[in-house]
Amino acid sequence: MPDTTSLDSIISGIETNKVLIENKIIHTLTDCRGYLKNDSLTIYIGPSNKRMKGIVGDCGGIYSWCIGNKDIILMIDPQIQGWIGLLPFSIAHQYQHAYSWTKMNLGALLAMNLMDRIVAEGKADWYAHVLYPDVKMPWDTALSDEGLQYQWSRIKAEMRSEDYYQIQGIMFGSDNYPEFTGYSVGFDLVQSALKKNAALTPEQWSNESPALILEMSEYKTQ
């Protein structure tokens, strides 16, 4: 029989914190709607399974993804200390994705090129940081300034790549790239663009194309 003790403990932890999680979600959605309007979202909550346990741990006990303009999945491991503090940020990140779902073609993940993906994740992270500036995510400090420049020099020629496995390796890390390379570069790229164009509202920059965000940033492909 497979060992399900850990899974049972995670499920029990979610059930124990049910009211806390619900309140966090309600307050976070209120914060999010102050800048971007997207009502009637459905948020699905589940435990981290054995296959996802590593990445959930790397992300501080919360891993989430957007599966439509109205649907967000939260995978939680309450056994990992600090997950409560990261919960609002994770929801806000996916909320921005949900808002941009049709604009950014997020419904066709396999059709996204590397530039689409890097800018999409950077936008979502920037939005979450606007709401929760004191929260630090693992990818915020995954690369030093020198590391960001070096990794950009390696991947900038691949911006048009639609190779799903190559993109995943860059975004999350692989034998060839440090952990969270794509997320770190994406956040820094979008941050550099929007700090220089502070007059843009979240609604405006959420609807800007990846190419224009890249052009506005300090990151250059040449």
Summarize it.
With about 220 residues, the protein is mainly α. It is about 50% helix and about 10% strand. The protein has ten helices and three strands.
How would you describe the overall organization of this protein?
With 222 residues, this protein is mainly α. It has 2 domains: 1-99, no CATH class; 110-222, no CATH class. Helix content is 52%, strand content 9%. The chain is built from 10 helices and 3 strands. The chain has helices at residues 5-16, 18-33, 53-58, 83-99, 114-131, 145-155, 164-172, 181-195, 202-206, 210-216, and strands spanning 42-47, 62-68, 71-76. It has a 3-stranded mixed β-sheet. It is globular, with a radius of gyration of 17 Å. The mean pLDDT is 90.
Mean pLDDT: 90
Radius of gyration computed on alpha carbons? 17 Å
Major β-sheet profile = 3 strands, mixed
Distance between the termini: 56 Å
Helix/strand structural class: mainly alpha
- Number of domains in the coordinates? 2
* Strand residues, percent: 5-15%
Name a few traits of the molecule:
single chain; 222 residues; mainly alpha; 2 domains; three-stranded mixed β-sheet; 10 helices; 3 strands; 9% strand; globular
